[in-house]
Amino acid sequence: MPLDIYAEEIISHYEHPHNKGKLKEYDAEFHDDNPICGDEITMYLKIENGKIKDVKFDGQGCAISQASASMLTDLVKGMSLRDARKLDYEKIKELLGIDPGPARMHCATLSLKTLTGAIFVYEHKKN
Asked: Domains (ranges, CATH) in the chain?
């Protein structure tokens, strides 16, 4: 696909994010930010039987960080915690359809950091 198609997808998720907001009931939440650029994301997870039953995010930032969160939350709904922990930067690049490069890597992975943080909080809260 041409690069502009990917840019359109990123802008679409930025302007009309999926799963944006706060869950009324959640089992874990995690907030992180990128102090260099001001992006911030809070991830909320509802877990049932070892799977992500529902997920939402809230935050603000650039198109890359917010589109990444929108796309990632679509992906992980229904996913096992085990599989969600295996997600990495390569998967984020695949979702975005572009390699944001070193300057925007932190923007692209902020949603992954908050997802991983929320899973960590959930797993350690139980024990």
From this structure: 3-126 (3.90.1010.10)
